[in-house]
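Q: I have 340 residues here and want to know how they pack in 3D. Can you give me a structure?
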Amino acid sequence: MQKFPPLCPLDMKKVLVVTYYWPPSGGGGVQRWLKFVKYLPLFGWQPVVYTPEQQNAPAIDASLSRDIAPGLIVIRQPIWEPYSWYRRLTGRSKNENLGAGFASSKKSSPYLEAISNWVRSNFFIPDARMFWVRPSVRYLKKVIENHKIDVVVTTGPPHSLHLIGLGLKEQTGVKWLADFRDPWTDIDFYDQLKLTTWANKKHHRLERKVLAMADLVVSVSKSNAEKLTSKGKTNLCVITNGYDEDDIKEISGKPDTKFSIAHIGTFMANRNPRILWEVLAGLIAKNETFKNDVQLHLVGHTDALILDDINRWGLSGILRLSNSVDHVSAVQLQKIHNSC
């Protein structure tokens, strides 16, 4: 049973949280600000959430709605994204998740994939949610006035949402906090985007402007914060990702009897840990009994290229595949596996 801090609009300051991911969207991107919004009233802040009506999310998790307090104001507005065009061009199904890393899948033509990713990288800057920026700024100016908002928070990726914060800052002067869950131009797949010189400069220019104009920038790690500091941002703090005690206090279960390694969530091709497959294959080759004592459990969508590598190293015998699960089940799996 979830317990929520009381919402006392007359006694609290108000914060507008602009987030692309919100229940029923699942996956890692939704957790951070879903939990912050849950507990902000304990610190004297009443949140108002702004999010798209439809989201291109990696998963749907209706169970997350239990973390939304009764009475929380959630404003949903239409968004147009070019993903239907992208899926048709690359032969993807309408339900297939499109990874942020633009990693190619063997399902589609490599030529079509390359062309599509080039267009996506060089014309949709900073990302395909760019078309939501102007209408959101226009709409949220009224929300700030009508709800007497004290602070705006934008969380990215997608980093287009920081451009919403930038527009609101420039046009209203509202206090603005930009939360970077992942880096922008320092993200690990940035060099794979095949950017033109013009597009690369635009990414960096927009990033610098966001960093310059935000009243406070928040990063999830010290290393990411150091990268942002190197770009000239000094008003910056680190708030790491954590956990919600409500999620774990009712979870029971004993660890797996086997040495079990799990990956829970979308497993994209550009995050393929080839050295792990090599090490596991080497251990099995040296000790045949180890094969009976180890299990590799992949939960959620796994790119076909990763599965090819696993099979190539002869690890199909220890592999277990499962469909996406809700957050409660994911926490349960984390408890019973030896390594996640």
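Q: Anything worth noting?
A: The domain at 13-82+124-238 is CATH 3.40.50.2000 (Rossmann fold). The chain has two domains: 13-82+124-238, 251-336.
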